Description:
The complex is a heterodimer of chains A (61) and B (297). With 61 residues, chain A is mainly alpha-helical. Chain A has helices spanning 3-13, 29-32. Helices cover 25% and strands 0% of the residues of chain A. In chain B, α4 (240-249) packs across α5. Chain B has helices at 24-27, 130-139, 170-177, 240-249, 258-274, 287-292; strands at 6-12, 15-21, 46-53, 62-66, 71-75, 79-84, 95-100, 105-111, 144-154, 159-163, 183-187, 190-194, 201-204, 218-229, 234-237, 251-252, 277-282. Chain B is α+β, with helices and mostly antiparallel strands and 297 residues long. In chain B, β1 and β2 (15-21) form a beta hairpin. In chain B, the strands form two sheets. In chain B, strands 1-2-3-8-7-6-5-4 form an eight-stranded mixed β-sheet. Chain B has a five-stranded mixed β-barrel with strand order 9-10-14-13-12, surrounded by four helices. Classes of the chains: A mainly alpha (61), B alpha+beta (297).
Amino acid sequence: xxxxxxxxxxxxxxKPYVKPxxxxxxxxxxxxVLGGCKTDTQSGAGQHxxxxxSNCSAATS
Amino acid sequence: MTSTPTExxxxxxxxxxRIASDDPRLATPADGSLDAFFVPPRPPDVDIRARWxxxxxxxxxxxxFDSGATWRLLKSSDEFLFIFQSTTGAAAPYRSAxxxxxxxxxxxxxxxxxxxxxxxxxxxxxxYPLDELLVIHQLAQGKGVEIHGCAVRDCDGxxxxxxxxxxxxxxxxxxxxxxxxxxxxxxxxxxVLRTDADRIDAYGTPWHGDAxxxxxxxxxxxxxxxxxxxxxxxxxxxGTPLSAAKLFSCAFLPFHxxxxxxxxxxxxERVTGxxxxxxxxxxxxRSVIDAIAPCMR
Lengths: 61, 297
């Protein structure tokens, strides 16, 4: 078996070098962690009923 | 005298939760907002007991995660404990939820100091965000992942996911699909992907966005589009590694648990390896549907 020829074939079959590129994917920790219900200032899922009771008076949700 | 426990079964993203309580208000929300997600009795993935308490016990275990908002998570040798407290009231928590390590059994306590136990119309034990936290932790057992996205289901039952963070255009795009007879909107905010079967399925959820669209329907996931606002419509194929990173940026997972994060990453890798992923830039008009139609055939 001709090892040199086989190696040459492999070398010729290589893909051309392409310089790696860094692509940034932004993360948003405030969204990744469930906080509370969606408001004008806070991201989150909307709910028909959002409970955020005060403990200084009984809530009648 | 012993009261008869009420039980209800809610199914979200294929995760079925049985809620049992002596007070029916704890087992089912009175406003009907979750009606579409309640199901007939079936073997549950999670079995929960809900009850009133005078004082929430929030000292069992050490804090492993603090949301910085309404909840924090404590862990002890054999259980997890979610503690919920108001962002407007004083420091005393109004609800706790204890789960075993696999999130298959739980005990929810609701503080009678915070709710009128006689007059309150609804004090649903799994009130948001507990229901979503529970589903996320159940999925992270190797069942799938929840994605920030909207989704539509076509006439053949195939689901197309449009993923994006807040402001990417999920509700805008969802509204453009409204009133079309050829699709059903599953959600404009949260979509569950199940990866624990031969087929990857996508489910609607009750957690909606500005368009307030929810559905319990599901179907095989056919394609993913990553949403971007743009001056004109443009669809570009996205390679698997970058798609996995983008999907991760739109995923909800328990960051406190490295094994759960590993399992979720494996789920994302499978999804982006098996399902075509594309970037979609779109202007907010209905012609975007024609622009993506070739990718939905």
